[in-house]
Amino acid sequence: xxxxxxxLNVRIYHDVIIRDSELCDNVLVPDDxxxxxxxxxxxxxxxxxxxLFNSKIGAYTTLEWDDVVRNAVIGKYCSLVxxxxxxxAEHYLHRLSTSFFPLEKRYGIIAEDxxxxxxxxxxxxEIGNDVWIAADALVLKKMKVGDGAxxxxxxxxxxxxxxxxDMDGSPGKENWTVVFR
Length: 181
Hints:
Layout: E1 5-6, E2 11-12, E3 17-19, E4 22-23, E5 28-29, E6 34-36, E7 39-40, E8 45-46, E9 51-53, E10 56-57, E11 62-63, E12 68-70, E13 72-74, E14 79-80, E15 85-88, E16 125-127, E17 132-133, E18 138-140, E19 144-145, E20 150-151, E21 156-157, E22 165-168, E23 173-178
Parallel strand pairs: 1-4, 2-5, 3-6, 4-7, 6-9, 7-10, 8-11, 9-12, 10-13, 11-14, 12-15, 13-16, 14-17, 15-18, 16-19, 17-20, 18-21, 20-22
Antiparallel strand pairs: 22-23
């Protein structure tokens, strides 16, 4: 059985699964969301069908429909538009297989279970404060995105993104346009 800490005025709708997580005051979690081993600060919206794993979400942040956040620290006042992936696992192309199964003894490939030296949980993705991440953006594991950054739609971010810079394209390229708000 999982233990959750749920604050005041938290609204949780249909078919939501929350495991080993803390949701502070005034959090909204609509239908079909999944939250595991997370801390969600106050006044956060986690929209429908979003999945969060092993992450911390800062106050006043909005995650839109179908976002996936894995092993990340997201700052305050951030906006992730629909279908964003932050901290997704990568498949390793230099191994026997792109599947993760060979890393377990039970499959008969290795003699002992080992800790993956490229463990996706070794270092979280860091998203600064007041960051806007547009639809279909992908921020890979271990990345750091600075305060005020704007990541364009469809971006593939596999290198750190500078503070107050626009990024767009695939792979992500800086436009060197300073964003003033």
